[in-house]
Write a structure and sequence with these properties.
About 15% of the residues lie in helices and about 30% in strands. With about 140 residues, the protein is α+β, with helices and mostly antiparallel strands.
Length: about 140
């Protein structure tokens, strides 16, 4: 008897991603078509949020990161290999083309100091939090 791991949330996440891709491909209003969606992990630390996206094979210069109105947008493109370079049978499973992700950020982030780096196919975006205001004592002056 073999055991099969059932993970309903991963299936729903895959279904949502497929719907996102189909919706972007089906639009005929001149909108950009996105062929794949990179997996992303988001962690909240004491002083910042860290977003890590799997973007193997994507040139860091081809990644565009914008922050506007509390929404962080990551877009880019992975260039596919030319199929004529391969001899014989081929099987291509890695998606190529444009990708796009958006994240609504809380109002407590410091949008002016967001930084990003890419190493070994992982894009890491560091989103610092604003410093918490320190409580201060207000003295009452005699009139």
């Amino acid at each position: 008897m073999s055991l099969i791991s059932y993970e309903p949330w991963s299936l729903l996440d895959r279904f949502r991603r497929d719907l996102d891709v189909m919706a972007s491909q089906g639009s005929d209003n001149g909108a950009t078509v996105y062929q794949w969606i990179p997996a992303v992990d988001v962690a909240e630390l004491d002083d910042r949020f860290v977003l890590r996206a799997d973007v193997p094979g994507v040139d860091p210069a081809a990644i565009d990161i914008n922050m506007d109105g509390g929404v962080l947008t990551i877009a880019g493109e992975r260039v596919s290999e030319d199929a004529s370079e391969h001899d014989g049978a081929q099987r291509l499973e890695r998606r190529a083309g444009k990708f796009f992700r958006r994240f609504q950020l809380p109002k407590t982030v410091d949008a002016d100091n967001i930084s990003a780096k890419s190493a070994h196919g992982v894009l890491e975006v560091s989103i610092p939090k604003q410093a918490k205001p320190e409580p201060r004592r207000i003295t009452v002056a005699a009139a």
